[in-house]
Specification:
It contains 17 helices and 22 strands. The protein is an alpha/beta fold. A seven-stranded mixed sheet has the order 14-15-16-13-12-18-19, with helices on both faces. The protein has a six-stranded mixed sheet with strand order 9-8-7-10-11-21, sandwiched between helices. The radius of gyration is 23 Å and the shape is globular. The protein binds nicotinamide-adenine-dinucleotide. This is Malonate-semialdehyde dehydrogenase.
Length: 493
């Protein structure tokens, strides 16, 4: 299957280039990685593991573009964002197709992901309002005071493989709308889409050098963390890397937001509408092959509904269609690489050894086994206990653990024992239970009777504990605060 890439050499497997100062430039990398389509194993491209020198070239280009861009009138910047939004809408299907090809998620999920990215651009286009400061005419007799917002300079963004469209769009559109210049380091496992996003932004009128892309892995990340020219770092990825990024960026005097891993609990009460709970949990646990930071990876079944709930979850999982995400009706695609498949199988073995009851074994799924790519079928463990490794670790695969609790208080206590605090859901008809859950649960993004409570672009993406390192979250007002600095002017005339 061929896709049109900006820096493709016709007919051959493209070696990706970096995007610096509005041009595709060859990386000086000595090491490269293959980028396979995870559904088929077919080679899509080769990605350079760029060295730190390439980072410095991109940071220099961004720094050179910053003075003029930061002084471009904010409504003019916003107009470029509006044009960008239109172009993204026009290219929606092409973008979704690239997401499915490089990530493996189903086309309908990829299509939804593109929508989430477009919504970020729509939010960023509100920059003239978002960047307003505030004044008080009389802070003392004859003295006034005002707050003014300015961009920071060059911002670095580092993104994970699981949302090649949405997560970069949490970062660069808003940072750029606020007047910053940006250097993006996309995941080396899904590096293709970023180039298209940059091309379309240039077509919308973004000046050269304002958005740059450096492909690679940890050398690029560490180059950004150490570069004196970079003022702030936005990171999304796994917990150990988030912690490293947070510590290193802060030690180098940079502002940093680092969004990390998760283990999201869904509590199902005895009064819940089980049809709704099962539909939503199955979609949230196995959608995107469980490779979502908001995946429902643990169910806490409260009271005597547990047997029925587990039975229905298993039945619904049996009905999931597995295959290439570009094929009609496919729900479950591959995990991202062979090593992720092996890691998932390893966790299923650990779960069995820990004494959890394997209700549905994704290793034995015939439809998954018949695929050429990296597939694991939906897997369900019952009678999982807090403390077990399959309960504690983020597996990031289509593996669901069911824990049993006697009441809501115990269910909340179990959820709160997790190291992570990204999302949590409650299935119930009781307003009293909702209130108790909202007040007592340790998680940043809560859902009631739905599976994936990911906030829209105008609200913060709000995890904490080991799910987030920093102060200001991505998106919403937090995002504007993160990408701007404030000056206070106090005056007597
Ligand atoms: P990852 O941590 O492996 O990679 C993320 C980025 O860090 C990539 O660009 C990668 O090149 C870089 N990186 C990897 N190892 C590094 C190292 N040792 N030193 C420096 N940089 C390094 O994450 P991933 O597997 O691509 O993404 C999945 C993870 O992201 C999951 O843990 C998921 O929960 C998390 N995630 C979190 C959110 C959120 O909002 N909290 C959203 C999406 C994904």
């Amino acid at each position: 299957m061929s896709i049109s890439l900006p820096n493709e050499t016709n007919g051959t497997i493209p070696g990706l280039k970096n995007y610096v100062n509005g041009e595709w430039v060859p990386s000086s990398a000595e090491r490269w990685e293959d980028v396979p389509n995870p559904a088929t194993g077919e080679l899509l491209a080769r990605v350079p593991l760029s060295p730190k020198a390439d980072v410095e070239a991109a940071v220099a280009a961004a720094a050179a573009a910053f003075p003029e861009w930061s002084k471009t009138a904010v409504p003019r910047r916003a107009r470029i964002l509006f044009r960008y939004q239109q172009l993204l809408v026009e290219h929606w299907e092409e973008l979704a197709r690239i997401v499915t090809l490089e990530n493996g998620k189903s086309y309908s999920e990829a299509y939804g992901e593109v929508q989430r990215g477009i919504e970020c651009v729509e939010f960023a286009a509100g920059a003239p309002t978002l960047m307003m400061g505030g004044q008080l005419p009389d802070i003392a007799t004859g003295i006034e005071s005002g707050m003014y917002r300015y961009p920071l300079g060059v911002v670095g963004g580092i993104t994970p493989f699981n949302f090649p469209m949405m997560v970069p769009c949490w970062m660069f559109p808003l940072a750029i709308a606020c007047g910053n210049a940006f250097v993006l380091k996309p995941s080396e496992r899904t590096p293709l889409l970023a180039g298209r996003l940059a091309e379309l932004f240039a077509e919308a009128g973004l000046p050269a050098g304002v958005l740059n892309i450096v492909h690679g892995a940890k050398d690029v990340v560490n180059g950004l963390l150490e570069s004196p020219g970079v003022k702030a770092i936005s990171f999304v990825g796994s917990q150990p890397v988030a912690e490293h990024v947070y510590r290193t960026a802060a030690a180098n005097g940079k502002r940093v937001q680092a969004l990390a891993g998760a283990k999201n609990h869904s509590i199902v009460m005895p009064d819940a509408d089980l049809d709704n709970a099962v539909t939503n949990i199955v979609a949230a646990a196995f959608g995107s092959a469980g490779e979502r930071c908001m995946a429902a990876s643990v169910v806490v079944a409260v009271g005597d509904i547990a047997d029925e709930l587990v039975g229905r979850l298993a039945k619904a999982a049996d009905g999931i269609r597995i295959g290439n995400g570009l094929d009609e009706g496919v729900f479950l695609g591959p995990v991202i690489r062979e090593e992720n498949k092996n890691r998932t199988i390893g966790y299923i073995e650990i779960g069995e050894a820990e004494g959890a009851k394997l209700v549905r074994d994704g290793r034995k799924d015939a439809e998954a086994a018949s695929q050429a790519g990296y597939f694991v079928g939906p897997t369900i463990f019952d009678e999982v206990k807090p403390g077990m490794k399959i309960w504690k670790d983020e597996i990031f695969a289509p593996v669901l653990s069911v824990v049993r609790a006697k009441d809501l208080a115990e269910a909340i206590a179990i959820s709160n024992e997790s190291d992570f605090a990204n999302g949590a859901c409650l299935y119930t008809d009781s307003a009293k239970a909702v209130r108790q859950f909202r007040d007592e649960i340790d998680a940043g993004m809560l859902g009631i009777n739905l599976g994936v409570p990911a906030p829209m672009a105008f609200f913060p993406f709000s995890g904490y504990k080991k799910s987030f390192y920093g102060d200001l979250h991505a998106n919403g007002r937090d995002g504007v605060e993160f990408y701007t600095r404030k000056k206070m002017l106090t005056a007597r005339y």
